[in-house]
Write a structure and sequence with these properties.
Helix content is 63%, strand content 6%. With 189 residues, the chain is mostly helical. Bound molecules: zinc ion. The site of zinc ion has 4 residues, from helix 3 and helix 5.
Length: 189
């Protein structure tokens, strides 16, 4: 990651946060610096780009966040950024095989895999809500997260998504989490 790219995500964050009428330019810069620091602590590169079918995806090479998110109020912007950040903590803590098996286990284990996936996503949401509220509080920003994340997803809906992905992963003979994430990335962009 070169200097220009680092400066650029910071600029994009500042520009986005400044659009919140309740936040002045000093706070916008400080909050952008804090968010950037959170990302850099994990040594992950984030980039904003047009994504048509998702708000973000945590890939090995970089984390892609939809440019639509830059138009969100800062509470929701942080919710998306920190949700994806949580996945990198999970990858480092548990390894990526946990996710790999969810996609490569046979359909007999669908129920169990769906529950695991829901739990991974719910944990990422909890982490994200905690971080977002911390920064809202730190800068006395009177906003609430309006997105529901995975809390509204039922096991049934996750199961039907997962069946679809398991079929693709088997068909395309995808062998690693990187291959799966890159495949999903190409599908959603
Ligand atoms: Zn997620």
């Amino acid at each position: 990651m070169n200097w220009y790219k680092k400066a650029s995500i910071n600029n994009q964050l500042v520009e986005s946060i400044s659009k919140n009428k309740d936040i002045d330019s000093t706070i916008s810069q400080k909050l952008a610096d804090d968010i950037e620091k959170e990302i850099n602590n994990l040594n992950v590169s984030y980039r904003f780009e047009p994504l048509s079918r998702a708000l973000g995806i945590a890939r090995n090479s970089s984390c892609s966040i939809s440019t639509k998110v830059l138009e969100f109020p800062v509470a929701d912007l942080m919710f998306v950024l920190f949700h994806e950040l949580a996945h990198y903590y999970q990858y480092r803590k548990y390894g990526t095989d946990l996710v790999l098996f969810i996609y490569t286990n046979s359909e007999e284990q669908l129920e169990e895999d769906a529950r695991k996936l829901k739990s991974i996503e719910n944990t990422a949401d909890k982490f994200s809500i905690m971080k977002t509220n911390y920064y809202l509080n730190k800068y006395k920003i009177n906003q609430k997260i309006t997105m529901s994340g995975y809390s509204n997803s039922t096991i049934e809906s996750i199961k039907s998504q997962l069946v679809y992905f398991k079929k693709i992963v088997a068909q395309k003979k995808l062998k690693t989490v990187d291959e799966i994430n890159d495949f999903i990335y190409n599908m959603i962009k």
